[in-house]
Amino acid sequence: MSAIVSKALNNLRSHRLSARSAWLVLLAGCLLGTTAQAGSVENMAGNWSSLTLSGSLRAISPKFHQFRWILINQTRLRDDNPAAWRLNEDQFYAQMGFTVNSYASVWLGYVHDWHHSLGKTAYHESRTYQDLLFDVPITPFKAKIRTRLEQRVNQTTGNMGIRLRQMATLQFPLVFIDPKLSLYASDEVLCHLNANSFGATGFSENRAMAGFSFQFNRRLGVDLGYLGQTIQEAGGDIVLTHNVNANLSYRF
């Protein structure tokens, strides 16, 4: 086992991680998400729709070219209401990043989350987070690895949940079809580090994603795909949501 770990670390240091190894990272996350013990399993459909705006502070001064910003608004719908689909969450993100080099960047962000769980009292969540993002060269893919630590605060009760999130994403350009089109696959594992009112301590959620991205031009792009969300609730039950995932992005 130690020899395998040592070999993997050497591959990362030399930036020669193979495409097969990258797919294994995604597969491991998916398997972790399915190993949670469940008292019962509930399936439902959903939709996640986002608008993403991004840019650089270069517009203010060339001295700030290493600083980037992102604003995101995301709505999440569920069909767990027999009458009709309903709004489950609305999230607004604001984050600022600093490019360390061509491979790494660090980010600070804030999320305001409006929760509307079925049969429960609605509440607001304030969430701060810190990201470490790596662009890993894996020919012929574009790959990203993101580690996020976030602090979730229920504005009604003051309860805080500290959550660690690990995500790996692969993007494969489909140049043989259209140079602007690419295929993406991603997996994210989420774990709460403390007892809290948001979810289970330890493994709490897995998000597996796949779909297509189309970049119309340097500024405008769109993503459309599937997002499978596995939620481990504090009581041991599992909630599976099968979502249409759509994002419209504009870069200033």
Task: Walk me through what this model shows.
The chain is mainly beta and 252 residues long. It has a single domain, classed as Lipocalin (Beta Barrel), CATH 2.40.128. It is 11% helix and 60% strand. The N terminus is likely disordered.
State the gist of this model.
The protein contains 2 helices and 11 strands. The protein is mostly beta strands and 252 residues long.
What's the helix and strand layout?
Blueprint: H1 2-13, H2 19-34, E1 41-56, E2 67-78, E3 86-99, E4 104-115, E5 123-138, E6 141-154, E7 160-173, E8 181-192, E9 202-215, E10 220-232, E11 238-251
Parallel strand pairs: 1-11
Antiparallel strand pairs: 1-2, 2-3, 3-4, 4-5, 5-6, 6-7, 7-8, 8-9, 9-10, 10-11
Relevant terms:
Lipocalin; disordered N terminus; mainly beta; 11 strands; eleven-stranded mixed beta barrel; 252 residues; single chain; 2 helices
Structural class: mainly beta
What is the average of the pLDDT values? 88
- State the low-pLDDT regions, or none: 1-38
State the share of residues found in helices, binned by percent.
Answer: 10-25%
- CATH class value: Mainly Beta
Number of domains as seen in the coordinates: 1
Strands of the biggest beta sheet: in what spatial order?
A: 1-2-3-4-5-6-7-8-9-10-11
Report the end-to-end length measured between terminal Cα atoms: 47 Å
Elements, N to C (H/E): HHEEEEEEEEEEE
Major β-sheet annotation: 11 strands, mixed, barrel
Strand content: over 45%
What is the CATH architecture annotation? Answer: Beta Barrel
Radius of gyration: 19 Å
